[in-house]
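[audit] Reproducing an earlier prediction to check determinism. Same input, same settings, fresh worker. If the tokens differ from the archived copy the diff job will pick it up downstream; this log only records the rerun itself.
[audit] input (440 residues):
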Amino acid sequence: MDALNITEYTQTLGLQAKAASALMAKAQAATKNRALRKLADLLRENIDALQVDNAKDIERAQTAGLAAPMVDRLKLTPKVIETCALGCEQLAAMADVIGEIIGMKQQPSGIRVGQMRVPIGVFGMIFESRPNVTIEAASLSIKSGNACILRGGSEAIESNRALAKLVQLALMDSGLPADAVQLVQTTDREVVGQLITMPQYVDVIIPRGGKGLIERISRDSKVPVIKHLDGNCHMYVDDGCDLDMALMLVDNAKTQKYSPCNATESLLVARPVAEAFLPRVGALFAAKGVEMRCDGLAAQILRSNPVVASVQTAQGGGAGASLIVDAVEPDWSEEYLAPIISIKVVAGVDEAIAHINRYSSHHTDAIVTRDHLHAQRFLREVDSASVMVNTSTRFADGFEFGLGAEIGISTDKFHARGPVGIEGLTSLKYVVLGQGEVRT
């Protein structure tokens, strides 16, 4: 498309979304739920067809030399599709929050004042790689009574188009406007520039992708943005904790999947348990080929341990410490999205909290502990969107939090924070009920 056509095309998307949002805002809960259940059925019925389209994207990405973690994010496996379908059904089973009135209080004047939850209106979603985001965004948009404009990455265009068709079929089958969910059909990046400067049509922009994308949109957007820049998540192994539990949790948090933003990237270990814990976790990481970027004490403990060295040798790393390297300052802030983890020995919970608040991206951080006071301090004092005790950071996810799905994970502090589900896509307006009162 030329520049004029891009402008006209984006304006048309905006006009259609605005019109659809008015219809979605007054749609009955039963109608929205019917659309979600229909979408779940369509996803399951079209697993084979979706994988054919997805294979085109994967082949093109591999030919273009896209990094392995990024290719992994593109995959629409039967398990991924089933998770999307379950998310739709979970949303359909949830109570409808639209129209809910909260905090109604009688005032001295006689009026009653409360707040009603209402849809935001139209949101624009700009995302990279993961095609399942199309379904997560669409399903949340339907449940929350909004309209949305989705712009996925060019690397997933075939998958996104196939999924968007199913969404629109489900909408029309349920009597809702097909334009309530629109996918940008062109890969021209100028559409993004147009979309983020249309406050007359778009009420909020939600970028989900690499740090460069999110920084650009945050800088240039004339529309409010819900965002998170990266996911440098921490696990802190506390003094006196259950080390078997800690080993299991750290393993899951780091190695269950390397590419998500909720994978742990930094491990902090209390000094009193470092000698006992680090050789065990080091041997596990070495066996899985995870590079460990360590502070001085962690490196000393790991390099001097024969179990870690023997595992590295068995994995082809030689007798040296090929998987144990000295950390540099940027490592403490890094989101690796790869089999790499930074490791630091800290004095205790005070230093752990201070380190996390300095270097964390304020996404998700966890403590493994038996000490109730340490757990409570960690929950109160760690300044992150999700803070956890004795569980894996991999649970920081809308589906796992019972939100049905998520539109993204916000590290902002205003409007929405953490996994953004239905309520994150709504606003509150004041409602006032009276019986003829006048102000004197």
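[audit] rerun output stored. Observation attached for the diff report: The longest helix spans residues 3-25.
[audit] end
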